[in-house]
Every structure is written in structure tokens, then in C-alpha cells.
Fold:
Amino acid sequence: MKVILAPNQAAGDQAAFQVFKQVVDHGAHVLGLATGSTPEGLYRLLRESPLDFSQMISVNLDEYVGIDPDNPQSYHYFMKQHLFNAKPFAHSYLPDGLAADPDAEVKRYDQVVADNPVDLQLLGIGRDGHIGFNEPGSPFDGGTHRVKLTDSTIEANARFFSSKDEVPREAYTMGIGTILKSREILLMAYGDKKADAIQKMVEGPLTTAVAASALQKADNVVVIVDPAAAAKLRPTSISERL
Structure:
């Protein structure tokens, strides 16, 4: 696990952009994408860049259950607004939050990822160490599944909604086992609220209580953090300082 310490979020976003540019320049075909506030700066840089995704495929980590794709709070909508409208892919896959048959949707999305092996998977991290919507206790070999969100995740996501009561209680997410099959993984984290999770992910024991600790098992992981998110790491855990 390579941990890069950026002096601030803007520098971290630039470093993340260079990771994306490198894999695209070297022939990557499938990008795994994430939503939330953390990657917004990266997506802005991608929108403003000359990179061409028109022959590539994207697969997203997750989607809320029960929200229409055109709802401004859906991850379909987020991706269109922050990337796809400006940089369309040949095809972009996301879980269907309105799927009538949850079991069939899980199988469908597992097949999507199996048919489109991810060259680079982008991740954020939750305060409790979740990646995607793989909450504490998620098995490390899990595939796509429908999950009940924890109170802490609902609380953290409430800032995107008019009230906490509007936050969906369930989501579809790629499993940890699916994420670990990605050829490369890039995780970004900023701010002191992520410091505990980053410390446990990088230095803590390998445990399903911290879903992101599973990344210790992966062969090619880059973690980009600012000083606040890295505050609880030992200096020896930092691989590079920008």
C-alpha cells in the first residue's frame, strides 16, 4: 500500500488525476468510479482535461435503493453532473436502485463487473472504514449485495439531503471481494474526520470490523491523504510526500 501525503486537497486531487492519466495513457479500458464529495475535485480535473473516455467503460461502486436515476440525490445523477455529461464513456454501468427483483439485480451487476474487469477502481472511505457501502462486518470475499446502511453512514450522508429522514436506508454496492479484483485501486481521503479510519486501514489489524483494512490484501493500492486525514499515521507509514 503506497500512502501519498499531499499538502492539501487541491494537491491531492492533482496527484489522483495523474494516477488516472497514467492508467488511461497505458491503455486502461474500464474505470471503476465512486461518488461523494471526496472525488469532486478529481472529476473537475478530468472534465477539464483532454482525456478521452469515449471508447472506455465505467462501472460505479454503488447506488441507493428506491431513488429514481433522475433524482438529484441519486448516484446516476451525480455522475452525469460531475463527469458523464462532459466526458461520456462508451457505456457507463451503475446498479439499478429501482430494480424490482433485488436478487436478480445483484446477479446482473456481478456479471457486469465480471464482463468488464476494472483496471483502476476509485474509492473514498467512510468514518467507520467502509468502502463502497460495505459496512463493518462485510465479508472480504463478498460480491454485489443489497445492504442496510448504518446510522453513522446515514448521518454522514444527511448533508446531501434536506433532512436525515430523506436519506435512503438501503443501497446496492459492489462487494469487497469484487473491489479487490481490480488491477489497481486508488483511495482518496481528506479531513480529520477520516483520520481514525485511515489509521485503522493502513496500520490496524486485518478485520471485517474495518472494511477498508481488506485493502492490505491487494497488490496495487495508492492512498492519497491530506495532513488532517494522515494525522494518526506513523511517519513510517507515509511512502511519499508531495
Notes: The chain is about 30% helix and 20% strand.
